[in-house]
Amino acid sequence: MARPHDWLIIGAGPQGRFIGSALAAADPSLSITLVDPEAPMQAWRRRAAATGMTFLRSSNAHHLGRHRRSLHDFIAAGGYDRRHTLGYYRRPSLALFNALAEAELACLEHIRQQAEQLTRDGKRWQVQLADGQRLAACHVVLASGPGAVYRPPGLAACEHVFDREFKLGKPKQPTIVVGGGITGAQLALRARDEGHRVAWLTRRAPEPADFDSEPRYAGPLGMRPFLAAGVNERTALLAAARRPGTLPPDIHSQITAALAAGDIDWIQATPVAYRRSELHLADGRVLDAPRVILATGFAAEPAPSSLLGQALEATGGQTDGYGHALIDSDLQLASGLHVTGRPASLQLGPMAGNIKGARWAGERLAALARAEGDTKKPA
Fold first, then answer.
1. Nearest to 155 by CA among 302, 299, 300, 292
2. Per-residue pLDDT, 63
3. What angle do CA 139, 142, 147 make, to 5 degrees?
4. Parallel, antiparallel, or unpaired: how do β-strands 337-339 and 332-334 relate?
5. Strand order in 286-288's β-sheet?
6. What is the mean pLDDT of residues 339-352?
7. CATH number of 5-148+299-376
8. Phi and psi angles of residue 324, each rounded to the nearest 5 degrees, phi first
9. What's the pLDDT band for 335 if we cut at 50, 70, 90?
10. I need a surface site. Which of 9, 39, 188, 223 has the fewest CB within 10 A?
11. How far, in Å, CA of 27 to CA of 367, rounded?
12. Cβ-count burial of 148 within 10 angstroms (0-12 exposed, 13-18 middle, 19+ buried)?
């Protein structure tokens, strides 16, 4: 077996790449390796393209640059005009966000393999890859992004916009998009623009909100009382802070205009079954539905077969029942095993799965790496 890695990061998406870059900046002597079967940020790009995203929902203060003013400086140096920022919060375009990430994130060693199994061996963690390789590391970071897509009960046969092989396909096909949040609205607009006959099915009317959680949680105003609360209280605080199923003002304006003009049909209902090209609704209606696309996000709880699911089983760890792992302030589920993204919400707050959460996770783990480096220095 090769020399153990100092840090092994499972996932090369926005979270994994930012964390790796933060660790490298904290201690350039560290051996840091990303493990992901896809190219860096490829899954992020694929999902964004599938939904038709053009602007991030995050403000211009939330990005993957090295410094807090990186995006501002990058805009000035790169000659980006106002078309690449949107609204009061100057939300960055997807193109601008991706360009900054490629310019400033560190180029780290990257093993293009699927991590399949995680086990503890003495003081180190062992990660087995799909090709049979076994990697050892002092620290492993689970930053593989969202888990399995969520298919509501009765809709297992429907395709999902985040399926790996999803394609919108040829125009003029009658299509029902299920999901009232930003993903569903963006997908309905994209399908409309590409010539599909679209019906958008949601449980409630479109609701605007600048962000998907209360903005005070982006700073100490929200995070200080959150972290001061007991772990058992934080689940309720997370639920109160989040705004699922809401739309930023630009998407809300576009979708409501499309509904008013009749360019997109709107169905307010709860689907309960899909079979033989018919969509059955809770109120008893049955819709002719040759194609149904789910835009219902991801399952909250980790699948038992996932690395996080394996880690919870192996360590006796737990979640709060809503997919949030019980971890310490160093984001550890067990010594040397770190969790990031939405599962780290009990430590990083409601923005844990977003760009702000990536930065906070990187800062915490970089501080840990610096502290460990200091203990190794001769007195």
1. 292
2. 94
3. 170
4. antiparallel
5. 271-275, 278-281, 286-288
6. 97
7. 3.50.50.60
8. -95, 120
9. very high
10. 39
11. 10
12. middle
End-to-end CA distance of the chain: 33
Token representation of residue 147: 């888990």
**Cβ-contact 178, 201 below 8 angstroms:** yes
Cβ neighbours of residue 214 closer than 8 Å, sequence gap 6 or more: 222, 241, 243, 350
Q: Both tokens of residue 251?
A: 């998407």
Nearest 5°: CA angle at 71, between 44 and 346?
A: 55
pLDDT tens for 10-23 read 999 999 999 999 99
Mean pLDDT of 61-89: 92
159-209+246-294 matches 5-148+299-376 in CATH topology: yes
Q: How far is CA 277 from CA 28, 67, 150, 175, 202, in A?
A: 56, 51, 20, 11, 19
Q: Can you read off the two tokens belonging to residue 52?
A: 């038709």
Specify the residue for token string 């979270």. 15
Residue extents of the structural domains in the chain: 5-148+299-376, 159-209+246-294
The 10 Å Cβ neighbour count of residue 31 is: 14
pLDDT single digits (tens) 29-43: 999 999 999 999 999
CATH class of 159-209+246-294: alpha beta
Alpha-carbon distance of 111 to 267, in angstroms, equals: 45
Q: At what angle do helices 14-26 and 355-376 cross, to 10 degrees?
A: 30
pLDDT confidence of residue 375: 76
